[in-house]
Amino acid sequence: MDLQKQPSPSSSPRPGAPAATAAPAAELRASDAERDRFADILREAMAEGRLTADEHAERIDGVYRAKTVGELEPLVRDLPGAHQGPADPAAAPGTAPSRPSAGAIPAEPDDTIVAVFSAATRKGRWRAGRRIHAYAVFGSVEIDLSEALFEYQQIVIKAFSVFGSVDIRVPENVSLRGSGGGVLGNFEVRTLDSGEPQAPVVFVDGWAILGSVEARPKYGKFVADIVDKVARKVEKIQRKYG
User: Fold this and answer.
1) What does the pLDDT look like over 138-163, one tens digit per residue?
2) What is the DSSP string of 60-85?
3) pLDDT at residue 89, as a whole number
4) What DSSP letter does each residue of the chain carry, written as one string?
5) Which of the residues in the chain have pLDDT under 50?
């Protein structure tokens, strides 16, 4: 005898029970990553001359005071970067991230370079730490990573120039990212994509006040051990499945 299938008690809502609804996106609590993304939009806008220094300072303060996504959105609504949306890592495999991985970079610098009415240089064969701070006040700082030993895949350089200059050079087979601004000065980071997952990523941020901060690749210079790492990885895979 065929019996009519009765619905499971769990498949139908309890009479009188309110239906579960998701909170609107604007009411969601803002994460640190979202605050950083909005701060990046504001920095770029000021570097392009879309915001004054006072407007930028006021909005940045609002970003880090915001508790929900809805409080963040009005701060960038009139800026082009707000309508581009966050980058989709799956859309561009092999592309370096725009910010360091959480917990990858220590809060304190491994190396501090200061030039006050003077010049300071890091170049040649030297070990690059995970965080480097550079300060040029009526002076010049040169950071040349073209022959450096990269013991870490992610490196942050915080560069501050006041009536001075900070020049950063990297090998052409690393990835280079920048986020900063200039106040009557020039902050310029030439974005570079290695395309190799094993390649180091150098993140440069900071400020140029009546001075300059510039980061770009030094063509003809390469991190040699990237090729060795890839070769060892391929050899390991071949031994495993060969």
Assistant:
1) 999 999 999 999 988 899 999 999 99
2) HHHHHH--BHHHHGGGTTTSGGGGT-
3) 41
4) ---PPPPPGGGSPPTTPPPP-PPPGGGSBPPHHHHHHHHHHHHHHHHTTSS-HHHHHHHHHHHHH--BHHHHGGGTTTSGGGGT----GGGSTTPPPSSPPTTSS-SS-SEEEEEESSEEEE-SS-EE-SEEEEEEESSEEEEE-TT-EE-SSEEEEEEEEESSEEEEEEETTSEEEEEEEEESSEEEE--B----TTS-EEEEEEEEESSEEEEEEETT---HHHHHHHHHHHHHHHHHH-
5) 1-5, 7-13, 17, 19-20, 22, 86-93, 227
Supply the pLDDT for residue 88.
Answer: 42
Token pair 């701070």 is found at 133
Chain centroid offset of residue 179 CA = 7
Q: Which residues pair with 171 in a beta bridge?
A: 218
Question: Distances in Å between the alpha carbon of 28 and those of 19, 76, 83, 172, 183?
Answer: 19, 17, 19, 41, 34
Tokens found for residue 15: 């009479």
Cα 148 from Cα 124, distance rounded (Å): 6
